[in-house]
Design brief:
The protein is an alpha/beta fold and 119 residues long. It has a single domain, classed as 3-Layer(aba) Sandwich (Rossmann fold). Helices cover 29% and strands 13% of the residues. A hairpin with a 2-residue loop joins strand 3 and strand 4. It is globular. The two termini are 23 Å apart. The relative contact order is 0.25.
């Protein structure tokens, strides 16, 4: 998997003043049945849509911060019987990398793993 960011040393989080907001969003276009037909998970879908929109509001109102949303990917866990794509070891890489963006990095965007996804 090619990564847009590099965050091999998580200790950077400890020694750096971080002006970041990282929301764990969801690519709503990818939901089975789409946005309108996903009635069983309506509260989840609405909450994630609001979170993605709020990220844009934060980015606009606080331009000195880097505010982004990311769908960290689908992670193999006991709750989904280990049927998804990413291991628990690989899953944090993109969110941590996004949290470590430089001061002039992007803001107000939604990332699906390591790429910008329009929302």
């Amino acid at each position: 998997m090619g990564h847009m960011f590099s965050a091999k040393d998580p200790s950077v989080l400890i020694v750096r003043t971080v002006k970041r907001v990282l929301n764990l969003g969801e690519n709503l276009k990818g939901l089975p049945g789409g946005w309108n037909e996903n009635v069983e998970n309506a509260s989840y879908t609405v909450a994630k849509a609001a979170l993605n929109a709020y990220t844009k509001v934060l980015a606009k109102n606080f331009p000195h911060f880097r505010a982004n949303s990311i769908c960290p990917g689908y992670v193999k866990t006991d709750i989904n019987h280990n049927t998804d794509i990413l291991s628990v070891d690989d899953a944090p890489e993109n969110p941590v990398s996004l949290a470590l963006l430089p001061e002039n990095g992007p803001s107000g965007l939604f990332f699906g793993l390591d790429e910008v996804v329009p929302f």
